[in-house]
Recover the amino acids of this structure.
């Protein structure tokens, strides 16, 4: 089945023949202090020091050795989303959240949330390609398959992942963080499903049931497509009015993959209803309200996500769905027009992208549409915030979906302008910050900035972008790792490991720098799941 242009093709096992004589899957775990060992010959021009590769391998080795499910009576292949960095075990009590993280979005101390670990699995697959050792990739595949097998609701067929759910490996059940005062098991898709092909190959009936479950139990009105990003995981409880464009895009993605795998009028209907809903909601500026409850507030980052998923879905559908594919492309094209008409300024660190704006003007406004704000930031993620690097990578991935022409060039100009801004930006130094200037940085932030620089280097061959990526990589290793632990910190101000803050995006970025410097034949993809 055709895949989206911005998706990485995942390796299937068995992997290619052994790429090198050195196997770096270490036990006991190799710590950062011992990472400067020779690299395997991964297709580049000889053997070079492998400090970044060593950091990545040290982290993955620790997660595989100590983070795989070993609690409760049933042992699965799932990997913990939270660990104590010193003991490499679940924390004895819930650690404090990083600044900007909501309690309701976290796992508990024994939780595993596969949706939030997709770049970790991607890193593991790539490590198997680089080292020739299949155990990394097999551990990733087994974790994903077990997650689907053990967290799918028997009532709704929804999966126990996303923004508010996880699998409790000690209690052996899908759970939510009760510390946040929420008892209902809320299903909300957080990221696009990168691993449909792999999971469909292993569990086709479960994946088709999941796609159908989204239509039957997430969508309130099957005529208009009205829905809420929240529904109850274990019973029929569709809601309405909170029809976020990003979540709509994720569902279109899944339905299109299911339709391409096994055509079904239900999946085509689901896509058709959703396309009509958002086509009708576009205003004269080609901008979309955030949802049915917040008028005159637009989330540009979410809208580009919808455009990307519409384009990918159109390219994925077969000849029998050609008219539906054309409607998907038309919706994406109109979203492009609205997005590109906004006065983005990624070359200005103080302005960045217009991440959120008034729908009736395109002028920036804050999340509640009550005043100024709405611009992306270089550093300092939190709920409702977007970084400039994150928006720039949206532009990069959308650019890669398009043929040469004015729209493609406009997206290219935006992403390269942002890359030039980060080329001169440094990761905030905690030691130099005061209470007034304090910014808590999550690992995903430099991870996306580094990947942005690598993308710009690949696009332009300008060595300054690669140099910037390496500098940011070195700063990130110094900020988030220490010689006493192979695991990265949750943020500048939190000393535990937590998948919620996107360490896996940083691992992928470090691997991208390493393979680019080595001129490896294994090209690390630019993350397309951090949105």
């Amino acid at each position: 089945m055709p895949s989206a242009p911005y998706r990485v093709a995942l390796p299937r096992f068995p992997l290619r023949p052994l790429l090198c004589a050195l196997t770096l899957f270490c036990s006991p775990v190799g710590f950062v202090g011992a990472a400067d060992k020779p690299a395997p010959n991964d297709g580049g021009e000889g053997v070079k020091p492998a400090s970044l590769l060593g950091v990545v391998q040290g982290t993955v080795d620790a997660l595989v050795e100590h983070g795989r499910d070993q609690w409760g009576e049933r042992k699965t292949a799932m990997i913990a989303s939270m660990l104590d960095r010193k003991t490499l075990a679940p924390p004895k009590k819930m650690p404090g959240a990083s600044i900007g993280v909501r309690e309701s979005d976290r796992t508990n101390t024994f939780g595993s949330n596969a949706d939030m670990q997709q770049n970790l699995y991607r890193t593991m697959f790539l490590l198997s390609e680089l080292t020739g050792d299949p155990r990394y990739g097999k551990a990733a595949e087994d974790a994903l398959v077990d997650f689907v097998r053990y967290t799918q609701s028997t009532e709704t067929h929804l999966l126990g992942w996303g923004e508010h759910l996880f699998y409790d490996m000690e209690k052996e059940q899908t759970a939510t963080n009760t510390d946040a005062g929420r008892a209902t098991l809320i299903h909300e898709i957080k990221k696009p499903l990168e691993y449909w092909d792999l999971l469909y190959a292993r569990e086709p009936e479960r994946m088709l049931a999941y796609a159908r479950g989204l239509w039957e139990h997430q969508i309130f009105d099957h005529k208009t497509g009205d829905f809420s990003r929240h529904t109850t995981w274990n019973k029929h409880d569709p809601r309405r009015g909170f029809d976020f464009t990003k979540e709509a895009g994720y569902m279109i993605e899944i339905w299109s993959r299911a339709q391409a795998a096994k055509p079904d009028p239900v999946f085509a209907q689901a896509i058709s209803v959703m396309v009509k809903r958002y086509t009708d909601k576009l205003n004269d500026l080609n901008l979309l309200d955030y949802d049915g409850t917040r008028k005159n507030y637009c989330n540009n980052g979410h809208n580009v996500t919808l455009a990307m998923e519409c384009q990918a879905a159109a390219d994925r559908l077969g000849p029998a769905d050609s008219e539906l594919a054309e409607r998907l492309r038309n919706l994406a094209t109109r979203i492009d027009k609205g997005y590109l008409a906004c006065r983005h300024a990624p070359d200005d660190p103080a302005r960045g992208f217009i991440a959120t704006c008034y729908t009736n003007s395109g002028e920036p406004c804050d999340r509640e549409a009550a005043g100024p704000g709405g611009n992306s930031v270089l550093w300092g993620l939190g709920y409702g915030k977007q970084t400039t690097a994150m928006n720039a990578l949206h532009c990069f991935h959308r650019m890669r979906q398009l043929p040469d022409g004015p729209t493609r060039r406009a997206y290219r100009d935006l992403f390269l302008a942002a890359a030039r801004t980060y080329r001169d930006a440094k990761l905030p130094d905690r030691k130099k910050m005061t209470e007034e200037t304090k910014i808590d940085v999550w690992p995903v932030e430099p991870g996306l900035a580094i990947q942005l620089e690598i993308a710009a280097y690949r696009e332009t061959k300008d060595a300054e972008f690669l140099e910037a990526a390496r500098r940011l990589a070195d700063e990130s290793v110094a900020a988030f790792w220490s010689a006493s632990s192979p695991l990265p910190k949750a943020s500048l101000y939190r000393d535990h490991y937590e998948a919620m803050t996107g360490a896996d995006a940083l691992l992928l970025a470090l691997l991208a720098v390493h393979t680019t410097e080595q001129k490896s034949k294994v090209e690390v993809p630019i993350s397309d799941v951090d949105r």
About this structure: Residues 54 and 217 are 45 Å apart (CA to CA). The longest helix spans residues 322-341.
